[in-house]
Design goal:
Number of domains: 1
Oligomer: single chain
Radius of gyration: 15 Å
Structural class: alpha+beta
Order of helices and strands: HEHHEEH
Distance between the termini: 20 Å
Number of strands: 3
CATH topology: Arc Repressor Mutant, subunit A
Helix content: 55-70%
Shape: globular
Length: about 110
């Protein structure tokens, strides 16, 4: 399985995890993901924004326009209460999946 395929199945979990720490705008999300993964994850805009818009539609995140200290208008994404619950479910599912994969791979 390619890195791209793995990322596709984990994008929402990764994005919601980042947004629990603080609201972020798009470019900040990309840089933080790259930093926290030691460069493993590099989200292209074609992946990031459709995922954020889908999560907004599903009520997992909200986007709010705000003026940055530089004067630039940016859309900051915030996780919602529904997003927090969905993330908790995703984290439980991920932990169970990782345990099962480890059991098979290490056998």
């Amino acid at each position: 399985m390619s890195k791209r395929e793995l990322l596709k199945g984990s994008t929402e979990t990764l994005l919601l995890s980042l947004l629990t720490r603080e609201p972020m705008y798009g470019y900040q999300i990309v840089k933080e993901m790259e930093k926290r993964s030691s460069g493993y994850f590099r989200l292209p805009e074609g992946t990031l924004y459709p995922a954020l818009h889908r999560m907004m539609k599903d009520g997992l995140v909200e986007g709010r326009w705000s003026t940055a200290p530089s004067g630039q208008l940016r859309r900051y994404y915030h996780i919602t209460a529904d997003g927090q619950k969905a993330l908790a479910d995703m984290q439980q599912e991920w932990a169970a999946f990782a345990r099962a994969v480890s059991l098979v791979v290490q056998s």
